[in-house]
Amino acid sequence: MEKLKDFEKRLRESTEKSQNLKDYLGIIEFSKTSIETKELGADLIPRYFQFYTSHSNQAFDAYKDIIEAVDVNLTVRVQAIRKLPLFCKDAPELVSKIIDVLVQCLAIDQQEQHEAVHETFMSLFQQDTLSDLINKLPEPRKLDLLEALAEISPHTTTLIASEMLPPIFELLKKYMPARNTVEKSDSRYVECLLYVFHHMAHKVPEATNSLCGYKVVPTQPSDRIGDDFSKLYKESTERLINLEDLIKASVEQLVQEMSDHDKAYLLFDSMSGDDKAILYMKRQDTKTELRTCINILAMTEVLHAEVPSFIGDTNVVKLSWKEATKPLAYTRALLVLLVLQGMCELEDDQVQALVGSSGLKQAQDTLPESRIFLHENPKVPCLFWRIRESTLLKLVTSKSWKKFLGFIRDQLFHLICWAYAASDLVSATRIMRNWEVEYIPLCPWYLCSFCRPEYLGEDENPEKEDDENPEKGHYCYGNDIEDCLLYIKQHGIPREICKKFDCKDWQPPNADDPHMHTTKLKSVRKIESMEEALLLLPHFPIGADLVVFKELWTVGEEIYYGPGTNSRGFRSYHAVIVSSIEIYKGEVVAICKMSNGTKVCDEGYVRVSLATTYMVVGASPKKKEHVRATSKPMHLLSEFIIIDIDENEKEKEREREKETESEEENPEDNQKGNPEHNPKEKSEEMQYPDFGASKFHNSLNEHIMPDSDKSLGNVSGEEIKMVTEGLTSLSKFGEKGPQERMHEPVEIVERGKRPANEAGNDGGTKKARTESSGCAHGI
Asked: What are the residue ranges of helices labelled H in 69-136?
C-alpha cells in the first residue's frame, strides 16, 4: 500500500506524466497483491490511463482481474464497472474486451452490479451510436453485445428506455429486410433486437408513434398523436410480414434437419467418439435455432395491430440461448437415497436444473473438492459441497481471543443468543482497548427488554404461557447481532447482575446503571465476505451467525459440517463469536464461542468447518420468511460483525508509568515483585486487593452470579467480610439497601409498549428476524 501511494504521489505531482511510466507500471503490478491494493488500484489505473495508452492491454488486463476477483468488495467492483468507458475513450480498440467484461458481469445475479452494467452500456452508446459500436466489433462480439442488451432490457429505467428505443429500432430495421431487397436477416440478431424493442416499448409505448406509426395514447403533448404516421405503420408492417416469411421458411428447413439428425441417431452406437460429438452438437444447434425462430414469430405476431401489446415484464418469451425449461428428473436410485438418507449426490445437469446455469457456474467457481449433494428437507432443501482446504490456509492465525471472551454463558431457553454474542463482543473489546483488565459479563436481560421492546411477546417461536407449566412462558424474541450492537452504540449496556432471569419481566433492576454510558461503541461494521472478515481476526474478535442443523448439538469435540444423513434439516441461525482459525485434524476450522453452557460441543466452543458450502434451493411457505434469500454459495458462518471502542489512553499511560517505576525501584531484580516468582507476595496481594468501585462490583458479581463450578463454601471469610462492608456502604445512598430493594414490586408496563425509563430506540426500522425454533437462537 505504501508503494502504491508513493507511485500515485509522484504521478499526481508530475507535470510531465510521460516521464513517470515506471510509476504507472508499478501501480499495475502492485495492484495485484492484496484486497486493499486491488481496491486502490481500481481507482488509480483508470485515473492515469490516458497518459499511457501504449500499455493499454497490460493496464486493462490488470483492471479486469480486479473486477473479476472474488475478494473485492461489491461497492469497489460496481465503481470499477462504471469506469470501464474511460478505457474505451482513450483506446477504442479495447471496446471488444470491455463488452466481454460486461457480459461476464451480467452472469452474476446481483442487482447493484447489473445496474452498473446498464449505466456502462449507456456511457458506451453516448460515445458511439449503437450501429457504429456494433460495426467496430468482430462478429462473435456483436452477438455478445446484443445478447447482453437483451438480458438487461427488462431491468432498464424509463429514461434509459426512451433514449435507447430509437437506435434499437433503426438497427432492427437493418435486420428486418423490406421486400425486393437483398438484405439478409440473421435470426439471432433479430431475436435479440425484437426482445429489446418489446421491453423498451413497454416502458415508453408513446415513443412508438413516431417510430412505427402505432396509435398509442401519449403521455406528453410532444408525442404528436395527431400527426399522420400511416406510412411508417405500413412500412413496419411490410417488414414484419417479410421477416415472418423468411423465418417460416427457416423453420421448415430446420424441421427437416432435425429429422435427418434423428435418422442419424439410429447409427449412433456404431459411430466413433468424434462423430458422436459432432452429431450431438449439430442437433443441439438445430434445436437452438428452432427456439430462436419460434421466439421471433411470437414477438412479431403481436406487433401487427395498430395498438400492439408489448410483451413487457411477462415471461412469454424465454431467450433461446438460455437453458431450455425441462422437467426435473431424478433416477430411481437417487429417489431411494433421498427417502432413506435424506441426501444424495447430483450430476451437474441436475444441479443446473435446480439453480440454473448461473447458479451452477457460481458453485463451480468455488472450486469444489467434492461432489454436490442435495439435502432434501421438505421445509428448506439445500445443496452442499466442500471446497478445497488449500484456499482457506491464508485464514489460519495464531491469534486467539478466548482469554478476552471470558467464561461460557448459558442462555437457557431464552431466544436471545444475539444478545449474549453482542454483549460478549463488547466485553472483549473493552479489555482490548484498556477499559477493563479482565472479562466482565454484560447484561442480555437488559438488551432483551430495551433493544426491540416492540417484539416482546410477539415472536411465534417461544412457547407461550402454559398454566400447567408456567416456566414455558417466554416473551423473548429472535433478532440479529448488528441491530443489537447499534443499540449499544447509542445507549450503552449495563453489567450483568443476574444470570437467570424471567424475560416476561421487562424491567431489569440495572436499567439505570449510571456507568452504562461508558460502554457506548465507536463503530459497528458489517462484513459480507467470509474471507474479508476472517482476515481481520488477528485485530478484532468477530461476531457471526452460524447456520444450524441438528448435528450442531451432537458434534461434541469434532468438526461441525452442517447436515448429515437423516438430518431433520435446517433450523435457523445461531449467533456466535469467532475466537480463532485453526487447523484441526488437517482441516481449517473456526473456533466459535456459543452461549449454551459448557455441556454443548467442546465445553461451549464449536469447531466449524470453513470448507462446507451450501445454497438454498427452496423453502416452504412457513419457513421462507426465516431463510435468508440468496442465490450465491454461502458458508456455515455468515453476517460477520466487528466493533471498536476508543482507546483508554489514560489507563495505557498509567500502566506504562507503573512499569517504569517498577524497573527504577528494582533495577537489579525486576522479578522480585512478580507474584508468579514469589508465591507469598501473590497470596497477600489476592488477600488484600485494592477494593475500589470497579473491583467491588466484580466481587459482588462473583457472589450474586457464581460460576457453575463455584460454591459459596469456597469463598474466604475475608472476601465475605469485604462484600458485606460494600453492601453496607451502598445502602447509604438511599433509604433501602440493595438486598431490600431486590424485593420491591416491579412496575408493570403495557405489553408492546416501551418501558417507562427508555428514552427511545433510534436503531432503525424493524428488521426481518431469524426463526428461533428448537436450539437455534434459542436453547
From this structure: 74-82, 84-90, 95-106, 111-127, 130-136
Question: Is the confidence at residue 656, as pLDDT, over 60?
Answer: yes
Answer yes or no: CATH 1.25.10 is held by domain 2-248. yes
Is residue 567 within 8 A of residue 551, CB to CB? The reply is: yes
CATH 3.90.70.10 region(s) of the chain? 392-644
Residue 42 CB contacts under 8 Å (≥ 6 apart), including other chains: 31, 63, 66, 67, 72, 76, 77, 79, 80, 83
Read off the pLDDT of residues 699-711 as tens digits, 9 standing for 90 and up.
Answer: 434 434 333 333 3
Label residue 590 exposed, middle or buried (CB < 10 Å: 0-12, 13-18, 19+): buried
Q: What is the mean pLDDT of residues 725-752?
A: 34
pTM: 0.48
Strand partners, 605: 593, 602
Dist. CA 36–CA 45, nearest whole Å: 14
d(CA 355, CA 409): 40
Which CATH code, of 3.30.1490.190, 3.40.640.10, 3.90.70.10, 3.30.310.50, is assigned to 392-644?
Answer: 3.90.70.10
Query: What CA–CA distance (Å, rounded) separates 296 from 172?
Result: 12
pLDDT digits (tens, 9 = 90+) for 449-462: 999 988 888 766 55
Per-residue pLDDT band for 323 (boundaries 50, 70, 90) equals low
- The half-sphere exposure of 648 on its side-chain side, counting CA atoms within 13 A, is 16
CA distance 439 to 444: 15
Based on the number of CB atoms within 10 Å of its own CB, is 500 exposed (0-12), middle (13-18) or buried (19 or more)? exposed
